[in-house]
Design a protein that fits this description.
Layout lengths: L8 H5 L12 H5 L3 H41 L11 E4 L2 E4 L6 E4 L2 E4 L5 E3 L4 E9 L3 E9 L2 E11 L6 E2 L4 E5 L9 E8 L2 E3 L7
Antiparallel strand pairs: 1-4, 2-3, 4-11, 5-10, 6-7, 6-9, 7-8, 8-10, 8-11, 11-12
């Protein structure tokens, strides 16, 4: 369950060590072997109690893992950041539209009208929301768990640095600022500092 290792069968058996001591009381004179039966019953009850305790610990471990995985899923980029439009440039090597030189394109370019809303693809915190030469108006979101997303060439920024966002929140609008030939959104996904193909994150 929840990708946890299975409990070893020897552990589940909860073996009991040592010798079983024979007890003889006055009851044995009335009902022969009664003390032995009671002793065996006590051991069975003890074994059952320890087995129940082990199962409870196992279920608690599974529950904690599921809760943690559910929280992590909220922070993994998993939706398209803009509605409509079309994919103009994919992830990978391409000819640079400015000088024709073959370079690696670290994201996707969505051709959309200026002012198209941009939505956060997952929960996170705004790490950067500003203007710079080549990127123009841009936003960077830290989603934790090693994930970051980047949005370039915006016309409007609707968030500020340090602001918390949820998946689906409006963060800005597309544009043509910075080093851009036409209105579009350049979108990147990074995991542990390495650019990923955003297409692999559209669920």
């Amino acid at each position: 369950y929840a990708n946890l290792p299975e409990i070893d069968q020897d552990v589940r058996s909860l073996g009991i060590g040592g010798l079983r001591l024979e007890k003889y009381t006055s009851q044995d004179y009335i009902i022969p072997g009664l003390s032995k039966k009671i002793s065996g019953l006590e051991l069975d009850v003890d074994h059952l109690a320890r087995k129940v305790k082990l199962e409870l610990v196992s279920f608690e471990t599974i529950y904690d893992k599921v809760v943690k995985d559910t929280e992590k899923m909220k922070h993994i980029p998993s939706i398209r950041p803009v509605p409509g439009g079309y994919l103009n440039s994919r992830f990978g090597y391409r000819k640079d539209p400015f000088d024709g030189v073959q370079r690696f394109h670290k994201g996707l370019d969505f051709s959309v009208f200026t002012g198209t809303p941009i939505y956060a693809p997952a929960d996170g915190v705004i790490q950067s929301a500003r203007y710079s030469g080549k990127r123009g108006k841009h936003i960077k979101i830290n989603h934790e768990f090693g994930y970051n997303t980047l949005f370039l060439h915006l016309s409007k920024i609707n968030v500020k640095r340090g602001q918390k966002v949820k998946r689906g929140d409006l963060i800005g609008q597309t544009g043509n600022s910075g080093r851009s030939t036409a209105p579009h959104l350049h979108y990147e996904v990074h995991y542990n500092g390495v650019a990923q193909n955003p297409m692999d994150y559209f669920f």
